Amino acid sequence: MSWDDHARRRAAIKAVLAYAQANPSAGLPFEQVAAAQAQFGSRRELLLALQYDWTQALWARIDLLSLESRDGALLDARKLGEQAYAECTQQHPVLRRLLDTCRDELGPSVRREEDMLRFA
């Protein structure tokens, strides 16, 4: 994937999230956002890209919280994972809503996310 491809995919994801924010009852707007159809071959590919974005944000938050908790305040992995998840949900509510709405379509990636939180 070239940098131009990457930039077009990022722009398509931003357009999907903007549409979903403006139309909260619409579900995953693959068909409604032309850039999404142009950059992703299917709904599933778009969903996997959104899941990837969520996973990256969640891991970054887990890393930051683990660094902040060196004094022992948050060394429990379950609490750290729960706090990271809550903070990411607050920072990315539209992304989380889309992923929750399409949970059944995500298949094994949902289990990987649950494992990540359990073993953070």
Task: Write structural notes for this entry.
The structure is a single chain. The chain is mostly helical and 120 residues long. Helix content is 76%, strand content 0%. Helix 4 packs across helix 5 (93-101). The longest helix is centred in the middle third of the chain and has 26 residues, at 43-68. The mean pLDDT is 87.
List keywords for this structure.
120 residues, mainly alpha, 76% helix, elongated
For the largest beta-sheet, the strand count, sense and barrel status come to:
none
Work out the helix count: 7
How confident is the prediction overall: mean pLDDT?
A: 87
Helix and strand run? HHHHHHH
What is the overall silhouette?
A: elongated
* Model regions low in confidence, pLDDT < 50 over at least 5 residues: none
Strand content: under 5%
Cα(first) to Cα(last) distance is 30 Å
Helix content: over 70%
Total count of strands: 0
Q: Return the structural class.
A: mainly alpha
Rg (C-alpha, Å) = 16 Å
List the helices and strands and how they pair.
Elements: H1 3-22, H2 34-39, H3 43-68, H4 77-91, H5 93-101, H6 103-106, H7 108-118
Helix pairs in contact: 3-4, 4-5
Can you give me a brief rundown of this structure?
With 120 residues, the chain is an all-alpha fold. It has seven helices and no strands.
